[in-house]
Amino acid sequence: MAGSEAAWQAAEMGVEVVIHEMRPKVGTFAHQTGNLAEMVCSNSFRSDDDEQNAVGLLHWEMREAEGLILKTADAHRLPAGGALAVDRDPFAESVTAKLKAHPLVEITGEEVTALPSDGQWIFATGPLTSAGLGEAIRAETGAESLAFFDAIAPIVYADSIDMSKAWMQSRYDKGETEEERTAYLNCPMDREQYDAFIDALLAADKTEFHEGETAGYFDGCLPIEVMSERGRETLRHGPMKPVGLTNPHQPEVKPHAVVQLRRDNALGTLFNIVGFQTKMKYGAQTDVFRMIPGLENASFARLGGIHRNTFINSPTLLDSQMRLKSKPNIRFAGQITGVEGYVESAAMGLLAGRLAAAEMLGRTVPEVPQDSAMGALIHHITGGAEAKTFQPMNVNFGLFRPVDGLKGGRRGRKDRYKAYTDRAKEEWTKWLAHW
C-alpha cells in the first residue's frame, strides 16, 4: 500500500520512479501473488465517515490528494455498511496495472538487502520485511527492530453458511442503501453456546512461537484466543458484541453474542469472519469455528494464520520529513514506521512520495499541518510518541490537538469530532494548495 502510493505520488509530480518488488520471486508467509497492494489481513479500509471518524477523515484527505489507493478502492467498493470494503483481487490487480502503465514508473523484481548511500529511496516494506533487509536496517540503526505478531482472519464460502440460522444486517441498520444496511452476515449465540465456544477456544492447539520471538501483540489486531484469555466476556464486548442487531428468525430473543461476517469479494461468494484473527492450528480452527451457529458445515477458502510484523522506532530514527537521520537519502513509509492499517500505511506512503519528489525537484513546501489526519499521524511517529513504549498506532482523534472551548467526555464527543474534522479539512486544503 505505502510503496504503491509513494510511487504514484512521486511519478505524478514528474519524478522517474523505480519500484523494487521482490514478490513473487521472493515470497512471504502471507502473500499469495506478486501484485502490488495485495490485501492479506482484511478487505476493509474501515469507516468512511469523514465527519465523525478519524480513519474516514484520512480517506477524505487521500481523495483530495488524488491518492491512487483510495481512488482504486472506490472503484472496487463492496457493500459494508458505513465501512469502505473492496473486492481485494481486482483492487490489487488494478493498482498494479495503473503503476505499470505510468510512463515514469518502472517495476523491477529483485530483492533489496542493503541501505544505499546515494540516490533517493523510500523503504515501504510493510509488515513482512525480508530477513536480509531487516538485518541491514538493524545494522544501520544500531538497535533491534521491534516486533509484534499480526494474525489473519479466516474466509468462509458463502454457500456453506446455514441461512436458516444466520441473517444479513449491518449493526444499527447503518448505511444509505438497503445493500449497505444488510452488508454483514450475523450468526447468533445463546449463553450456553457462547460458553462452550470460549471453552473450546481456550483449549485449542495454538501456533507456537519460534525461539527468540515474543508475542508483543498490537491491541487493534489481537487474536481472538488472546482476547478470550483476558476474560470470558471480552469477546462479547469486542467482535462478538450483540448490540444493534435483531435476529429475524427469533425476533423476540436477544442473542447473547453475535459473530459477524463481511463480504470479501464482489460476487458475494466469500465472507471473512470479522475480528477473528487467530493463531490456532488449522485443525483446531475448523473444529472451533464450526461450533458457531450457521457455520456447522462451513467450508473455508482460507484459514487464519499468524506472522511476524517488524517496525522501526520511528520517534528516535526519523526526522519530520520521514528521513532516516543517519542516512537522509532514505525515507521510510507504511507499517514499518509504526502506523497500523492499510489506510494509515498508504497515507504515509503518500506523504513520503510527495516529500521525496519535492526534495528532488528543489521545491520547498510547508510542514504537513499537525491538525490534519495526515499531520497527526506523521507527528506521532516522528516525535509525538513516547519512544520507550512506541507501538503501532491507528489514526484516532486521541492524536489530534484539542479544539478550544469544546465540551469533553462522551456527551460532547459528536461536536468535538466534527470540530476536529472541519479544522483538519481546512488545514489540509490549504496545504495541498502549495503543490
List the strand order in the largest sheet.
9-10-11-12-8-13
Strand pairing plus helix content: what structural class?
alpha+beta
Q: CATH fold name of the largest domain, please?
A: FAD/NAD(P)-binding domain
CATH superfamily of the largest domain, called what? FAD/NAD(P)-binding domain
Q: Main beta sheet: strand number and arrangement?
A: 6 strands, antiparallel
Distance linking N and C termini: 22 Å
Radius of gyration: 22 Å
Mean pLDDT: 91
Number of domains: 2
Extract low-pLDDT stretches. none
Distinct helical segment count: 13
CATH class of the largest domain: Alpha Beta
Please identify, by name, the CATH architecture of the largest domain.
Answer: 3-Layer(bba) Sandwich
Notes on the protein architecture:
The chain has 435 residues and is an alpha+beta fold. The chain folds into 2 domains: 1-145 and 312-433, FAD/NAD(P)-binding domain (3-Layer(bba) Sandwich); 152-307, Beta Barrel (Elongation Factor Tu (Ef-tu), domain 3). It is built from 13 helices and 16 strands. The protein has helices at 2-12, 54-64, 68-75, 88-101, 131-141, 178-181, 191-203, 224-229, 282-289, 314-317, 342-360, 373-384, 413-432; strands at residues 17-20, 44-47, 77-78, 83-86, 105-108, 121-123, 146-152, 155-157, 167-168, 184-189, 257-263, 270-273, 300-302, 305-311, 323-324, 327-332. It has a 6-stranded antiparallel beta sheet with strand order 9-10-11-12-8-13. Strands 2-4-3 form a 3-stranded antiparallel beta sheet. Strands 6-16-15 form a 3-stranded mixed beta sheet, with helices on one face. β3 (77-78) and β4 (83-86) form a beta hairpin. α2 runs parallel beside α11. The two termini are 22 Å apart.
